[in-house]
Write a structure and sequence with these properties.
Elements lengths: L12 H8 L1 H15 L8 E8 L7 E7 L4 E8 L10 E5 L3 E7 L9 H7 L4 E7 L3 E6 L6 E6 L4 H13 L9 E5 L4 E5 L4 E2 L1 H4 L4 H15 L12 H18 L4 H17 L6 E3 L8 E4 L2 E4 L6 E3 L1 H13 L8 H12 L4 H20 L6 H19 L1
Antiparallel strand pairs: 1-2, 2-3, 3-5, 4-5, 6-7, 7-8, 8-10, 9-10, 11-13, 12-15, 13-14
Helix pairs in contact: 6-10, 7-8, 7-11, 8-11, 8-12, 9-10, 9-11, 11-12
């Protein structure tokens, strides 16, 4: 029997365990923020985005955020002493190695972020910060706010066109009003959409009705007259699945055989699915993307809008429900309503898209700097295998 290479988590397992200890990491971040001269009395820090890169330095990157008041910083963990830079604090922590802490505006992949923050005075809240990728900020108070999404690449104009196309389409749910695209600052602006994330309503009495309404609304999008720039066919889905699978196997070599088995089964399910014209889909309409304002639903974040299988959007909600035992029973009312609006779905293809989302979740676990990341990746990968077996 040929032995496989060890999990890449073994290389930094002890450091990842130390990073998982709240007192050590949070104490270091609080010290760094004080050194940076950031005025805050906050002590409640949390990790909001995190990436693990075992083969390079930094081996881990975090976005960290305090509440009341909000302060956002980028934290990078190194095994060896990193280079210094203006506006950056380096701290030595024996169990971790070195930490490099930088303020939000000092992200080399988002060079326009600092200028945007300087140009927009007044209240602001960082809604989502993905280090080296993008940052979404709400400017102004609730009820009269504008949202700016800053990108690391040049996708802004394309995203703005999608926002305008969705705004013009006759849809039975609300969408954010488009603002403008500032190409120089790589920023897309949008207006505010009223409501709160629907996830809370799903877990309260009446959740079945909310799930039904979500199914009708999501299914209606597939009938909307929206001409998306992007097409996602079987080849695109399988390419993305293969990319996720390769990255999982690179980090956790013991999972390579299961990855290959899953990819083969996904290919067979796509090949066996009856042909159907692609339709407009959101791409990831999970409960955090839906807002509820009284009885009025709204949907945000159309960056992934494409022409694709209707099963793609259905799978996003189904997998979100599957991952929460308290609301898993809402899958049937959602799916029944979705099919009543979008038309009958292809069971094998729905299984393929659900499995691909569990594969993506396995990839996410393999990219997170957690000491049990390889175990969690394995669990999610096996869930994907179970789904394709049931759908075969």
């Amino acid at each position: 029997m040929i032995a496989t290479a060890p999990s890449a988590f073994e290389r930094h397992r002890a450091r990842l365990e130390a990073l998982d200890a709240p007192e050590l990491l949070l104490g270091a971040v609080a010290e760094a923020v004080a050194t940076l001269g950031v005025p805050t009395t906050a002590t409640d820090w949390r990790r909001t985005r995190e990436y693990y890169a075992p083969a390079r330095e930094p081996y881990a990157t975090f976005a960290m955020e305090s509440r009341d008041p909000q302060v956002v910083v980028r934290v990078e963990a190194f095994a060896e002493r990193p280079a210094g830079a203006a506006g950056v604090v380096r701290l030595r922590r024996e169990a971790i190695g070195w930490l490099r802490v930088a303020p939000l505006a000092d992200d080399p992949a988002l060079p326009t972020l600092g200028e945007l923050l300087d140009a927009e005075p007044g209240p602001r809240t960082v809604v989502r910060y993905q280090p080296m990728r993008r940052c979404t900020i709400r400017f102004g108070e609730r009820g009269a706010a504008r949202f700016a999404k800053v990108f690391a690449d040049e996708r802004g104009p394309s995203v703005h066109r999608l926002n305008e196309a969705v705004w013009r389409a006759p849809l039975p749910f609300a969408v954010p009003p488009p603002g403008h695209c500032d190409e120089r600052l790589r920023t897309v602006w949008q207006g505010e959409l009223a409501g709160e994330p629907v996830a809370g309503a799903l877990s309260r009495p009446g959740g079945e009705r909310v799930a039904h309404e979500l199914g009708l609304a999501a299914g209606a999008l597939t009938r909307a007259p929206i001409a998306a720039d992007r097409m996602l066919d079987a080849a695109a889905h399988l390419h993305r699945a293969a990319t996720h699978g390769r990255k999982i196997a690179r980090v956790v070599p013991d999972l390579a055989a299961e990855v290959d088995e899953l990819l083969g089964r996904l290919g067979a399910l796509h090949a066996a699915a009856p042909s159907r014209p692609p339709v407009p889909v959101h791409g990831s309409p999970h409960p955090e993307q839906w807002l509820l304002d009284g009885d009025r639903l709204g949907l945000v974040d159309f960056d992934g809008l494409a022409l694709a299988d209707p099963e793609l959007d259905a799978s996003a909600m189904l997998v979100a429900l599957e991952r929460d035992a308290a609301i898993e029973h809402l899958a049937s009312p959602f799916l029944d309503a979705y099919e009543s609006a979008a038309g009958p779905l292809r069971p094998g293809l729905l299984a393929a898209h659900r499995a691909q989302r569990w594969l993506a979740a396995a990839h996410k676990a393999a990219r997170q700097p957690r000491p049990d990341g390889d175990r969690r990746a394995a669990e999610r990968l096996r869930r994907a295998l179970t789904i394709v077996e049931e759908g075969r």
